[in-house]
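Query structure, 1007 tokens:
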């Protein structure tokens, strides 16, 4: 028995010892965490899943987890900005396991410029799109906004015309106003530009068609497009139409780099207006005209459109030097653009220069950034009246008359008139161009100095100062010689002598100065998994314009009239305070709050101040446990935003007080034996204020397949109040029987979708595509102080053909700028019945009560498609755009496509649109021009650009990267529209300057 007990005791002891050894056996896990370039990542966290055990890497990227029981575990490694990875390890003693982390998608980590700061794209809570240089439009780009045409969902960029420097109409989410500006606020390197434009959308800087034509696109680094109120409210009462932040190129640390680019292009007219040939016109007049009318036909065969258009050439050369000394990064650039217009005599020459200096002092505690950009634009404006004249001038007549009268150009004559010309007859198209010399010379400079000081005692806190300016000096002359038909014998002096022609001048100075001071704070609070950044500041901006008024002078210097005032000097100021707080918890949840309070001198003292708040929330759903490790989703974020913004560009600076004008000579008062002109007050509206827009936005950012496919989808709803509209005034209550007041409301909503995909991503071959789509609808909800069913609306959209005719109207419960027309009746053959319209109200009379709302120029949807392929040293790509649901009024058809417009009762024979052969309309009804027959579907697909390039690499021993490229702009358009071009910003096609087709060769050299 004792032996048995001894054996049992020994076995028990052995078992206990083995169990204790097994229980007490532990190990460690050590290793290094680095990035894809093998650089250490200090501060990365390494944890054992399912436990509380973990470690943080030291400055060298090393970590150690001790006292780990033997076994198999899953380790998770996290570092902000990098993809979290998991790895299974077996612990049996000392285990070494190294990790190499790959960065998250570069698109998610790219830094995006926002109002008064920057943020990583992944941390954005508002609807913001960033477009960088690699995504810009290719080809001959003369104004900055053309770089992003078709690139951003919700943004429409429509060129105003094909003229040099004409610029574009930019609309973000359709705009928010009816009669005030719909242009977004544009901020260049922290300097907000003056958004004010003339009523027709042209530049208020005298001497240029578009203010942005003075900015060299080659100097631009990126665009940030702020679309919803949570992103734009930081700009307060100028942000209802969105904000575009333009960042220009800056110097970078490293050895000096010289970049040179050169382009040569040839532009041609893509499509002519379809008009009758000389033979067709002769046949038409013989079939429909009298013997006397047939006698007005000539024997020539003149194509007037070929007479006024030309093949135009453009050269665009740019050079820049960038680099850094010890503490001074710098970039200096210069550019020269020489562009001819396809309409003869038109041209633009632009000289630009830019300097950027960005030194740091006191061990990077003080950062200084100096930007100075300057431009000189010399332009000759072609007389665009020649376009309409070329469409309507008789092709059976010659270009030249054979004598010296009217400069030798053939004109319609009437010996009984004072000047010998037939009244109301079109003028010689070539004469209109060549006998008018309209030149301008404009200087502009935009610059600022920013100081960013990081406090030593609190490095998270920065003090910032921004001193900026935007000044311009524009002047020009318009000379028409005294033999030109357009100004022949236009003035008769007191002695009875006639004088002709024009020799007038204009001059204008503008200045926009800004001071801003703000504090910014940013801190990671790791103990509570939080990050907070905030900004609070003050802004003062002053706008001044001095317009000099010159006498109306004939070609020989005779003064026709003198100005009432030698100059006009309107001025306004904007004073603001603003703040924003952004809070991120656990890199998952983002809260953003913004507020700005603006005071504008454009309004009466008791209505100058307004507050514009916004709030946003974002949820990085991809960071949640239920989506981590997904093999499909690589990014998913929800964004919610709401806010209020304003629009202060609603007219003149002092509309809240009466403006006095000197009466003309037909309204003089006699005192004794003398007659006096009196100053007369104009109407005013003391309660005028800014238009306000409240906006709600819901969006998702998504990514698939390790973010090879990324995109966004947004839904927005906006309501604009205080819209301007005309209202009647009781007799004796104002100095006008009609004023413009803040009484209207409107809503708009839409969906935006954007997707980018790397279809192929390999060493030698890459292929990426980008698609954006936008659906938008709008409706006017109020236009009068009280509901008034009898109020049809506010007419707009003037057209040629008749006196004072408008083709559009703004009415309650309809989209803005809806066409307001008669409903055409058609025959069995499908042709319109001459002068026959539907009696819509059934009263037996066709009158204004039978007009109805029919279609709108605003598209229901618009799209952009981009494709880029790179194969070894070759690259190719294209950009296309499409617009669906937009309609246009074909004013060319309505004004030239009837028998009456061709066989004119004033005693001339005009040319006309070939549409007259299909329609058979006589045009004898005064309602013809308001027929819905002329409202045409203007939906289109346009191939904006096709490009190909080859990179030769280093052409010298150790440097000299050379790239050659070729591209075609405005390649083709697919549309049902019967006019020259369906892309019409106003929806009214009235002989617009056509967009050319352009062929470009380019060279880029970096040294």
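Result returned for the query:
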């Amino acid at each position: 028995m004792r032996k048995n007990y001894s054996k049992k005791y020994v076995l028990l002891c052995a078992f206990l010892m083995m169990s204790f050894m097994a229980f007490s056996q532990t190990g460690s896990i050590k290793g290094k965490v680095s990035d894809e370039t093998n650089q250490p990542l200090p501060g990365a966290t390494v944890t054992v899943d399912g436990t509380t055990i973990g470690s943080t890497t030291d400055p060298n990227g090393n970590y150690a987890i001790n006292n780990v029981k033997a076994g198999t575990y899953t380790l998770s490694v996290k570092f902000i900005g990098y993809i979290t990875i998991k790895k299974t390890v077996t612990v049996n003693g000392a285990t070494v396991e190294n990790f190499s982390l790959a960065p998250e998608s570069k698109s998610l980590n790219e830094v995006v410029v926002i109002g008064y700061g920057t943020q990583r794209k992944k941390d954005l809570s508002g609807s913001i799109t960033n477009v960088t240089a690699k995504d810009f439009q290719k080809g001959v780009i003369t104004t900055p906004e053309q770089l992003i045409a078709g690139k951003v969902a919700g943004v429409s960029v429509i060129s105003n015309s094909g003229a040099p420097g004409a610029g574009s109409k930019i609309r973000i989410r359709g705009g928010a106003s009816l009669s005030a500006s719909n242009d977004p606020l544009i901020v260049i390197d922290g300097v907000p530009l003056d958004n004010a434009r003339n009523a027709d959308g042209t530049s208020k800087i005298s001497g240029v068609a578009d203010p942005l034509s003075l900015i060299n696109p080659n100097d631009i680094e990126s665009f940030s497009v702020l679309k919803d109120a949570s992103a734009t409210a930081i700009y307060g009462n100028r942000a209802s139409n969105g904000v575009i932040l333009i960042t220009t190129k800056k110097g970078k640390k490293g050895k000096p780099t010289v970049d040179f680019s050169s382009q040569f292009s040839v532009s041609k007219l893509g499509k002519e207006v379809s008009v009758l040939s000389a033979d067709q016109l002769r046949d038409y007049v013989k079939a429909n005209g009298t013997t006397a009318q047939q006698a007005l036909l000539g024997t020539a065969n003149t194509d007037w459109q070929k007479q006024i258009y030309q093949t135009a050439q453009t050269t665009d050369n740019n050079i820049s030097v960038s680099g850094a000394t010890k503490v001074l990064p710098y970039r200096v650039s210069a550019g020269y653009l020489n562009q001819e217009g396809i309409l003869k005599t038109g041209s633009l020459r632009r000289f630009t220069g830019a300097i950027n200096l960005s030194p740091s002092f006191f061990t990077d505690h003080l950062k200084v950034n100096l930007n100075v950009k300057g431009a000189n634009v010399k332009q000759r404006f072609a007389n665009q009246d020649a376009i309409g004249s070329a469409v309507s001038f008789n092709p059976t007549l010659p270009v030249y008359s054979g004598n010296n009268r009217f400069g030798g150009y053939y004109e319609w004559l009437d010996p009984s008139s004072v000047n010998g010309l037939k009244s109301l007859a079109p003028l010689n198209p070539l004469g209109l161009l060549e006998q008018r010399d309209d030149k301008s010379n404009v200087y502009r400079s935009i610059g600022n100095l920013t100081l960013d000081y990081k406090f030593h005692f609190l490095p998270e806190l920065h003090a910032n100062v921004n001193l900026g300016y935007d000044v311009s000096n524009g002047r020009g002359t318009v000379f028409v010689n005294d033999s030109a038909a357009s100004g022949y014998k236009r003035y008769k002096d007191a002695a009875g002598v006639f004088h002709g022609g024009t020799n007038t001048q204009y001059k204008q100075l503008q200045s926009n100065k800004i001071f801003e001071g703000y504090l910014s704070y940013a801190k990671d609070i790791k103990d509570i998994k939080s990050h907070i950044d905030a900004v609070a500041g003050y802004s003062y901006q002053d706008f001044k314009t001095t317009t000099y008024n010159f006498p109306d002078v004939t070609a020989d210097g005779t003064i026709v009239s003198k100005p009432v005032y030698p100059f006009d000097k309107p001025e306004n100021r904007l004073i603001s305070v603003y703040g924003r707080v952004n809070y991120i918890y656990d890199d998952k949840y983002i809260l953003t709050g913004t507020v700005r309070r603006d005071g504008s001198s454009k309004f009466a003292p008791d209505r100058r101040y307004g507050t514009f708040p916004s709030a946003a929330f974002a949820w990085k759903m991809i960071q949640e446990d239920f989506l981590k490790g997904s093999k499909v989703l690589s990014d998913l974020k929800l964004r919610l935003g709401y806010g209020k913004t304003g629009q202060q560009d609603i007219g003149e600076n002092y509309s809240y007080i009466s403006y006095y004008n000197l009466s003309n000579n037909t309204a003089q008062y006699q005192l004794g034996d003398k007659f006096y002109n009196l100053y007369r007050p104009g109407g005013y509206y003391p309660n005028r204020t800014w238009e306000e827009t409240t906006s709600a936005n819901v969006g998702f950012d998504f990514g698939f397949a390790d973010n090879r496919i990324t995109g966004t989808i947004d839904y927005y709803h906006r309501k604009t109040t205080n819209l301007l509209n005309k209202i009647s005034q009781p007799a004796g209550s104002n100095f006008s029987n009609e004023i413009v007041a803040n009484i209207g409301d409107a809503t708009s909503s839409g969906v935006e979708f954007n997707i980018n995909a790397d279809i192929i991503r390999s060493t030698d071959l890459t292929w990426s595509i980008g698609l954006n789509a936008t659906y938008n609808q709008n409706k006017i909800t109020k236009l009068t102080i009280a509901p008034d069913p009898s109020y049809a609306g506010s007419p707009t959209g003037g057209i040629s053909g008749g006196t004072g005719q408008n083709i559009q109207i703004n009415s309650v419960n309809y989209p803005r700028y809806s066409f307001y027309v008669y409903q055409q009746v058609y025959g069995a053959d499908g042709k319109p019945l001459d002068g026959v319209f539907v009696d819509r109200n059934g009263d037996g009379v066709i009158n204004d009560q039978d007009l109805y709302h029919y279609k709108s120029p605003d598209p229901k949807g618009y799209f952009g498609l981009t494709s880029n392929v790179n194969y070894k040293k070759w690259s190719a790509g294209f950009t296309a755009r499409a617009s669906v649901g937009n309609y246009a009024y074909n004013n060319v058809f309505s004004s030239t496509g009837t028998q009456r417009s061709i066989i004119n009762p004033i005693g001339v024979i005009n040319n006309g649109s070939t549409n007259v052969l299909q329609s058979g309309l006589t045009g004898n009804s005064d309602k013809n021009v308001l027929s819905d027959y002329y409202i045409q579907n203007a939906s289109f697909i346009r191939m904006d650009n096709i490009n190909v390039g080859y990179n030769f690499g280093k052409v010298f021993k150790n440097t000299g990267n050379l790239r050659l490229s070729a591209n075609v702009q405005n390649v083709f358009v697919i549309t049902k529209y019967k006019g020259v071009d369906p892309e019409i910003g106003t929806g009214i096609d009235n002989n617009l300057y056509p967009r050319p087709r352009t062929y470009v060769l380019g060279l880029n050299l970096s040294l």
